[in-house]
Fold this sequence. Notes:
Layout: E1 6-7, E2 13-14, H1 35-44, E3 74-76, E4 84-89, E5 92-99, H2 102-117, H3 123-132, H4 152-157, E6 171-179, H5 182-200, E7 202-209, E8 213-214, E9 220-230, E10 244-245, E11 251-254, H6 257-262, E12 277-284
Antiparallel strand pairs: 1-2, 3-7, 4-5, 5-12, 6-9, 7-9, 8-9, 10-12, 11-12
Helix pairs in contact: 2-5
Amino acid sequence: HDGRVRASPRGTMDHVPLPQRPPKRRRRREGAAPAAEAHDSAGAAAAVPNREGSPEPDWAPKTGVPSFAPDVKVVRWVPGKCQYEYKDHTADIQIHSWGDSVEECFAWAALAMFNYMTPLKRLASSALSAKGSAAGTRVPGNANMGTHEDNDEDDANDEDGEDAPATEPNVGHSFEVEAHDAHSLLFAFLDELLFNFHTTMTVCNAVQVLPIERRGEGTWRVRGTGVGERFVDGVHEQGTEIKAITYSAMQIVERDEAEAAANEPAEESNPGAKRRAELFVIVDI
């Protein structure tokens, strides 16, 4: 048979398949398990990722948890003690944070950003509850989405709220950014953490910001470290995705002690009025 396509008596075309080469036998690498065994072991190990005793997702970078620098304040997310608030803005959201220094404001703004994307109060508890359900298997889809009626801001400032279960961080990110002024430095700082979240799904619930270095004209630098957990769809609760940081209406306010003390007592409209520093940044959602 010559393998050509010929016309059938009814005028249609009959396909004559060409001869196929036999499949090549693949050599198994030394020490590698057979495909069937590997598949079974992978399925058996697919418990809740990122928890103690469970494997990391295949795409997760194998990095350790960075250490915080000594003698520098670490800002940790604790219910009822958060120094930030969310303000409504047309099609976006404005983050307002305050503290005793600009560096502390940077850290609180970062935690506010993560808390908006996934409630930090339930970062550990949602994974633990998922681990205990369905014999510890991964929750399909996102079973935790929309199960809580209270909003993130109430969680952050609820004095009577229970603390989330204490867990050791299993992922983290240390970084350094440079910019030409304070506003661009804040943008670069938050943008680095947001980019790291989108690429590694690292959610930080503790952030340390080292003193800002102002190196003459047009050179500002800051180093930071954030630690927490890796977000897993179907395990951690979803909030609202933040797409980008913006410069719109960005403000960074610094005061000396006398100026802060002279301000009117902090009111609900501006709880950071009597603090040494505060900032405002709008994020695109």
